Amino acid sequence: MAEGKTELSGPKKCGPYISSVTSRSVNLMIRGVVLFLIGVFLALVLNLLQIQRNVTLFPPDVIASIFSSAWWVPPCCGTASAVIGLLYPCIDRHLGEPHKFKREWSSVMRCVAVFVGINHASAKVDFDNNIQLSLTLAALSIGLWWTFDRSRSGFGLGVGIAFLATLVTQLLVYNGVYQYTSPDFLYVRSWLPCIFFAGGITMGNIGRQLALYECKVIAEKSHQE
Amino acid sequence: MTLTEKLREKISRAFYNHGLLCASYPIPIILFTGLCIVACCYPLLKLPLPGTGPVEFTTPVKDYFPPPVDPDHKQGEPSEQPEWYVGAPVAYIQQIFVKSSVSPWHKDLLAVDVFRSPLSRAFQLVEEIRNHVLRDSSGTRSLEDVCLQVTDLLPGLRKLRNVLPEHGCLLLSPGNFWQNDRERFHADPDIIGTIHQHEPKTLQTSATLKDLLFGVPGKYSGVSLYTRRRMVSYTITLVFRQYHAKFLGNLRGRLMLLHPSPNCSLRAESLVHVHFKEEIGIAELIPLVTTYIILFAYIYFSTRKIDMVKSKWGLALAAVVTVLSSLLMSVGLCTLFGLTPTLNGGEIFPYLVVVIGLENVLVLTKSVVSTPVDLEVKLRIAQGLSNESWSIMKNVATELGIILIGYFTLVPAIQEFCLFAVVGLVSDFFLQMLFFTTVLSIDIRRMELADLNKRLPPEACLPHAKPLGRTARHERSSALRPSTPHTITLQPSSFRNLRLPKRLRVVYFLARTRLAQRLIMAGTVVWIGILVYTDPAGLRTYLAAQVTEQSPLGEGALAPVPVPSGVLPASHPDPAFSIFPPDPPKPAENQTSLREPPGPVGPAEGVPDSPGPEVTWGPEDEELWRKLSFRHWPTLFSYYNITLAKRYISLLPVIPVTLRLNPREALEGRHPQDGQSAWPPLGPGPAYSGLWETNPKGPGGTQAHRDITLYKVAALGLAAGIVLVLLLLCLYRVLCPRNYGQPGRPGRRKRGELPCDDYGYAPPETEIVPLVLRGHLMDIECLASDGMLLVSCCLAGHVCVWDAQTGDCLTRIPRPGQRQDSGVGSVFEAQESWERLSDGGKGGPEESGDSPPLQLHHRGPLPPSLFEDQPDLTSLIDTNFSAQSRLQPPEPTQPEPRHRAGCGRAPDTRGYDFSLLVQRVYQEERLPPSPALPLASEEEGAASPEKGPSPVWAPSADGSIWSLELQGSLVVVGRSSGRLEVWDAIEGGLCCSSEEVSSGITALVFLDRRIVAARLNGSLDFFSLETHTALSPLQFRGAPGRGSVPTSPVYSSSGLVACRLTHTVPCAHQKPITALKAAAGRLVTGSQDHTLRVFRLEDSCCLFTLQGHSGAVTTVYIDQTMVLASGGQDGAICLWDVLTGSRVSHMFAHRGDVTSLTCTASCVISSGLDDLISIWDRSTSIKLYSIQQDLGCGASLGVISDNLLVTGGQGCVSFWDLNYGDLLQTVYLGKSSEAQPARQILVLDNSAIVCNFGSELSLVYVPSVLEKLD
């Protein structure tokens, strides 16, 4: 228990708080659940953002439109975000380069806000063509990474996630499980990788912060005073 | 110097100057900034208010044609027509406004008659309208040709299928309630019930079915049993698809011909176009709300980091104000330069705030508060600014760069966003520099003032006798202040311990966060808000009306002359007030139906017929639709799945229709059930009818009815809330019976009121009877121990040596009277003899059977006949013995003379006689073994104090004891006179002394035969102890029982001990040395000159001078691991690296002096004058938690092991788990010590704790700890 603790977050920073209360697995589970919920919530909200253009003023089924996409999409997003959020601190640890850049909740909140903003822009702003949209979103995503992450592992993982997720979506669409209203590039929207990249960075940020939070419990509390 | 460095320096200097400026002239700068903000926001006034209220535009009816779809005529007068006025409207709405009354009103008419027959006329009117056909040259046109044909209702509205028309013209009238079937109406016994059957039960009444069909607001319709105005008004609403002027004119003319309105002043000149904005649906609301939640979380997490300032909330507010006003300025400036915002402000606002961010503000705050506190405010601000100048500039530049990149995406929306953001960033920077910095300087200044005020009282009551910055424990205890219980003020809740059951923890969590109360409060607020907003008479309509009125286009539509109805008589000749519609020809017979205006009619008793209400048409009737909910039309059209969002409708001028019915018609239309007094006739007496006349526009019955409902609901909600709160209170009381969460408990903690931790968890209370060491008469000042022995010294100057295991008093060294007179060696013997004497006295027959040390407890009531009581006298009568002994006769028998006699060197003769006597006693005493003393000697010895207590021990030139150290069996005493004395603890004899310097010894270190004395004048003396005979381990110990092996060598006093001054550091510090500690071959001194010095013990060589405190150093800690910690009067704790002399960390710990400081392997424990004990993480310097101490017990703490902390309280000691901050146990130390606070705690090696309760010492063994340690 104790060694798990120290392994988790370095011997210096952590008091023995966690070790006595939660074992590492419980810890992991709590974090996973939190990340899952965040993922589901974001998926629902962003989905709504994407479809709201087609919603009439007084639709009879407003609530239904929230769940208008397939039922399995939010859980999938949740699971993915849980995996990503747990993967980031794990990789940080294995690479031995702990993430030190802007590790604060306010920064994480900023990151989430920018992520939602990117989605918002992709949904609402009228672009001339898809290339412009994709380029803009790519620039925004890289900007997000630069502003809030700046770690090589974060970038690599983000790119990997974007690639994988796009591939999965591609496969799904190809098999007709899921469909977009207006695919512009090989059955998928071309901006999808950017969104996935930004989402990966965001969830990784949250996951890192959650992992850090255990150690920083003390600090946070004392800051509150 | 590279360019970057040059730039950096320049920026830094500029910021420094700017900081000085800001802090020097705060008020003018804030005023200037405020002016700037107002000036920049001024263009915002031109912008339309954001809102979803409809916008109006009025065009004259004459030669109206629908605007073309293609807005190519824009170059004409762009300001004249709004942008949305393009293309044909969704629909033209023609309202036919029917006002109807039964007149003359007959006395035996029922209340139902007011509206039954008028409503029945609606069917006839609808028939007329439906059958209206325009025949002209182009052919015939019926209503069906021009009206808006509607299809199905929305699937969710099936219950309205009977009421609202489907598959045909959209024509609404009250007749729709009865499917436009007159027979149904006549067969309906309960008209009101039918009308209200579709009314929603809730209060959400934005546009109900009744409003839709009646076309007038509910309170104007007059269809009520309680109306006082017997006039019914309703509209028949026709919706046209296209504007057919001829058809409409024809219809209007015909209706006005058929039902003339005599005194109608409606102008019917203008066509009002109402444009509806896009409404925010739930689907859009959820993402919006999400972004706002994220925004607030961001602001919360950001402002939470503001620390160490006077008013956190104030600064947080200032930060938010900075960001918000910079955004406003940004929009204002952009508007000023001609950019019209097209983005939805509410949507992009959170993103703008996030982009601009609060980071710089926080960085600024942090930088400023981490500057040295003792600097002037101006300089602090300036330094803080210049420290962070580079990073702030870099940040701003980076953000500007990123945003500029965004500007080149060439997407209009993003460009606009970026433009706003850039201007916002610049204005934010401006505001940060001017506004926030100034606010910060004001805040810091306030904090300094507050600190000053807070620190003053404890300093003011410091004793003047002691110039040292010692802890003012005794003085502070007298200050009256409500003591606070032991609470750990800060704790991570969930990670702490598992001692409590989960259920209780949940409950405590709920109770601690007041979650339920807060939820209820929030819910109530939201609910009230919803009520206020959605109420038809509430905010929403008001706002809508405001918006409508404020829109400049709508104003023209309003009638300028507010003519109240009723004052306009029918035959009023003034054309200015009665402008009749020009087109309908006025029939002649309308004059006959006119009556005289009622005027002020008194109570018309006995008059069977009262005149009916005057049907008047005022200008307000023209715009009656304005009084409808602004959702009226969108609701109506949404029923047919037609959205009005971003489209407009045109309202044609209403067609007034006046229906006059005589009582006969009213009676004819009556339903048989109406008469069955289902509703008693209104106005049973003439007084009522009179009232009707005089007050025809009284509050409508429905309005009162609705108000009552509102009040009922409000009262119900209030009651429910109260009940819930009470319930919660009960729950809270039941579940949290302990007095947790009441920080300001009055008075000191009573017995049974337990100290408890965060959860209100109070550990099992235990009470043990400690070994009370009594013997001092005044408060104990100094305590020292080496684990086996315990030395204490009280204010009166007595030194007692106790056995730390048994609590026996081994030796008492009284206050020396004439130390100067007696030689060093001789005193030693005399002291020893006195010791024997006192021992003998204790064992005397008077108190036979009691072992000497325990007698101390029972000796109180005895007459002062023993030597042991002499200290009592000494402190009671505190005179200068050395002066008096010469003046007074030799009668008083005191130990000091005897001592002198013992040593056989009495300087003055008077004392000499007496000393002889004592010497004899002493010799006699020595002969027999101690338990059996001869009576005579005992009596002799006992007699001595009775002779006169007056010349007792006095504060001699020796001065009081300021410091005390104990090692082995040697006690080192430092006196205020600068005299250093080494006493034998067991024998009680003075081994040697040294008084070269007359400056008082403020601190002592006795380590390995080396004594270091720190003096008041800042010098440092190193002594070494030399024994001429080899020191042999001492055999005699008070109680050999459970002693552990003594840590230091115990020297027997048999050999001659000499104390030699080896080295003197004459000016180690400029000011008195206040703290002195030695460990690991290093000696650390802390002084009032704000510095610390580190010396090597062997060669007294000064290694480092440590500067970092901004106040006098009050306490120093060093241990074998070379960790050096120091605390100062500035409330700061510094951790140093002894090897390099560098400061490892610096933390502001206390408000007020740091009084004591200890370190364990993982944490630093500090206590301050603020009665707080704070526990810090040693490596990260993060405060883990703090413990609020009882008043006066601030400095009483001790560390037993690495994870066990002892603190003292009122008559008790508490044990804390250091790692978790848990209160483990509170031990009450007997009843007698209840009122006394434990001022000092000394932890001995064998887990005994010595607490200092005033003049008593309590020796506590901790059984659990003993087990743990052994």
The CA-CA distance between the termini of chain B, in Å, is 65 Å
Unreliable runs of chain B, pLDDT <50, ≥5 residues?
74-78, 455-499, 550-608, 677-702, 737-760, 818-922, 924-956, 1030-1054, 1264-1270
Question: How many strands in all of chain B?
Answer: 47
Name the overall outline of chain B: elongated
Helix content of chain A: over 70%
The total beta strand count of chain A reads 0
Strand composition percent of chain A: under 5%
Low-confidence stretches of chain A: 1-21, 54-62, 216-225
The multimeric state of the shown protein is: heterodimer
Q: Termini separation of chain A (Å)?
A: 30 Å
Beta fraction of chain B = 15-25%
Helices and strands, with pairings:
The complex is a heterodimer of chains A (225) and B (1270).
Chain A: H1 2-9, H2 17-21, H3 24-51, H4 62-66, H5 73-95, H6 105-124, H7 130-148, H8 152-174, H9 192-224
Chain B: H1 3-24, H2 26-41, E1 55-60, E2 92-102, E3 105-106, H3 116-130, E4 133-136, E5 139-142, H4 143-146, E6 149-150, E7 168-169, E8 171-172, H5 182-187, H6 191-196, H7 209-214, H8 218-221, E9 231-240, H9 245-258, E10 270-276, H10 282-303, H11 312-336, H12 345-356, H13 359-369, H14 377-407, H15 412-460, H16 473-478, E11 487-488, H17 502-513, H18 515-534, H19 539-550, H20 552-555, E12 609-610, H21 619-622, H22 632-638, E13 647-651, E14 655-661, H23 663-668, H24 686-694, H25 701-735, E15 765-768, E16 771-773, E17 780-785, E18 789-794, E19 799-803, E20 809-813, H26 824-842, H27 852-858, H28 870-876, H29 881-887, H30 895-903, H31 909-926, H32 935-946, E21 961-967, E22 970-975, E23 980-984, E24 990-994, E25 1001-1007, E26 1010-1015, E27 1020-1027, E28 1057-1065, E29 1073-1079, E30 1082-1087, E31 1091-1096, E32 1102-1107, E33 1113-1118, E34 1123-1128, E35 1132-1137, E36 1143-1148, E37 1154-1159, E38 1163-1168, E39 1172-1177, E40 1183-1188, E41 1197-1201, E42 1204-1208, E43 1212-1217, E44 1222-1229, E45 1240-1243, E46 1248-1253, E47 1256-1261, H33 1263-1269
Parallel strand pairs in B: 2-13, 2-14, 15-44
Antiparallel strand pairs in B: 1-10, 2-9, 3-12, 4-5, 6-7, 8-9, 10-13, 11-40, 16-47, 17-18, 18-19, 19-20, 21-22, 22-23, 23-24, 25-26, 26-27, 27-28, 29-30, 30-31, 31-32, 33-34, 34-35, 35-36, 37-38, 38-39, 39-40, 41-42, 42-43, 43-44, 45-46, 46-47
Helix pairs in contact in B: 1-14, 1-15, 2-11, 2-15, 10-12, 11-15, 12-15, 13-14, 13-15, 14-15, 18-25, 26-30, 30-31, 31-32
Family (chain A): Belongs to the INSIG family.
Subcellular location (chain A): Endoplasmic reticulum membrane
Transmembrane segments (chain A): 28-49, 69-88, 131-148, 155-174, 186-206
